[in-house]
């Protein structure tokens, strides 16, 4: 893969099966088994034969309706979901924020979870110790909360700590799924500034967001996903305008 590419996606397809039974209780499962009935499953084609190259130092925005395959794609880039077909090649260290507080231990304090996040990212204890106070300051929690169990946090506090951990690990590639929706206006502005700093450091960022203005303001490139495929790829202003037209009119653009 060329050195100027952070991610290369080649003919990527991801399929999985889901249980479509409306009542997924143990009693119903036992009754179906006693009658010899099989669990009803449906195959979902979440991503279909996708090709995409993401250069180093770019900020890619991904828009699309629920069920378009955006989060599935992100999890595959992160190495969480293996491809069914095709392949993903990644050149660099990835830091992810794909759901608020994922990986946090609710019984531990925010400070302890920062340490766990650092260890999971491959940092040494000394490196984590040097970053802990910086992360705590960035999260800007109310007095004392950084040393309280995260189960006592609001969703906004969760999001601020999770975002602070993700961006503090100096990743080569940062994956964010709706992360910028967390926090108040002041924290969102701080988040934007930190993202721009990462871009200036030639970091690569991939953002999934329903906030189209975020994509316009922050991204250098954008794709519109629809039913597992890339429907359009190009300038963020143009892509978000096309997607907004679709939301308003309900008609897909002609090829």
In a nutshell, what does this entry contain?
Helices cover 37% and strands 26% of the residues.
Structure description:
- It is a single chain.
- The chain has 8 helices and 9 strands.
- The chain is of the alpha/beta class and 255 residues long.
- Helix 4 (125-139) packs across helix 5 and helix 7 packs antiparallel against helix 8.
- The protein is globular, with a radius of gyration of 20 Å.
- The mean pLDDT is 84.
List its traits.
single chain, 255 residues, alpha/beta, 6-stranded mixed beta sheet, 3-stranded antiparallel beta sheet, 8 helices, 37% helix
List the helices and strands and how they pair.
Blueprint lengths: L4 E15 L6 H9 L6 E15 L3 E5 L6 H8 L7 E6 L3 E4 L12 H11 L4 H15 L15 H14 L4 E5 L7 H16 L3 E5 L3 H7 L2 E6 L2 E6 L1 H14 L6
Parallel strand pairs: 3-7, 3-8, 5-6, 6-7
Antiparallel strand pairs: 1-2, 1-4, 8-9
């Amino acid at each position: 893969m060329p050195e100027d590419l952070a991610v290369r996606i080649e003919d990527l397809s991801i399929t999985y099966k889901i249980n479509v039974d409306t009542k997924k209780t143990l009693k119903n499962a036992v009754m179906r088994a006693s009658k010899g009935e099989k669990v009803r499953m449906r195959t979902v084609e979440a991503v279909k034969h996708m090709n995409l190259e993401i250069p180093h130092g770019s900020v890619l925005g991904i828009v699309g309706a629920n069920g378009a395959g955006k989060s599935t794609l992100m999890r595959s880039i992160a190495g969480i979901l293996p491809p069914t077909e095709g392949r993903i090649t990644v050149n660099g260290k990835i830091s992810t924020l794909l759901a608020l507080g994922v990986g946090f231990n609710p019984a531990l304090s925010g400070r302890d979870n920062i340490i766990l996040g650092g260890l999971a990212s491959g940092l040494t204890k000394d490196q984590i110790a040097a970053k802990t106070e910086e992360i705590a300051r960035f999260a800007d929690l109310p007095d004392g909360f950084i040393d309280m169990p995260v189960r006592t946090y609001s969703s906004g506090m969760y999001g601020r700590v999770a975002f602070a951990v993700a961006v503090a690990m100096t990743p080569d590639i940062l994956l964010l799924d709706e992360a910028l929706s967390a926090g108040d206006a002041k924290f969102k502005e701080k988040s934007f500034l930190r993202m721009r700093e990462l871009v200036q450091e030639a970091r690569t960022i991939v953002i999934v967001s329903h906030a189209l203005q975020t994509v316009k303001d922050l991204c250098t490139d954008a794709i519109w996903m629809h039913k597992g495929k890339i429907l359009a790829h190009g300038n963020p202003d143009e892509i978000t305008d096309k997607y907004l037209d679709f939301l308003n009119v309900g008609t897909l653009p002609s090829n």
